[in-house]
Amino acid sequence: MTFVPNRGQTDPHVSFLAQGGGYRVFFTPTEIVFALRHRDRLAGRRATTRDDDVSFGAPKTEVLRMKLIGGNPEPTISGGEELPGKAHYFIGNDRSKWRTNVPTYATVEYRNVYPRIHLTFRGNQGSVAYEFVVEPGADPAQIKLAFEGADRVGMDARRGLVAHLPGGSVRQEQPLVYQDHDGSRRVLSGSHASRGGNRFGFQVGSYDPSKPLVIDPTLVYSTYLGGGVSDSAAGIAVDAEGNAYLAGHTASSDFPTANPVQPAFGGGDTRGDAFVTKLSSDGSALLYSTYLGGRDNDEAYGIAVDSGGNAYVTGRTLSTDFPTVNPLQPNRLGYDAFVAKLSPSGSALVYSTYLGGDAEDEGWAIAVDGAGNAHVTGYTASADFATVNAFQSSNRGGSDSSGDLSGDAFVAKLNPEGTALVYSTFLGGSTSSPYGFGFDGGIGIAADSAGNTYVAGRTYASDFPVQKALQPTKQGSGHSVFLAKFNSDGSLAYSSYFGAGFGYLRSGGIAVDGAGRVYLTGSGTVPTVNALQPAPAGEIDAFLAKLDSTGCSIVFSTYLGGRDND
Question: What is this structure's pTM?
Answer without folding.
Answer: 0.64
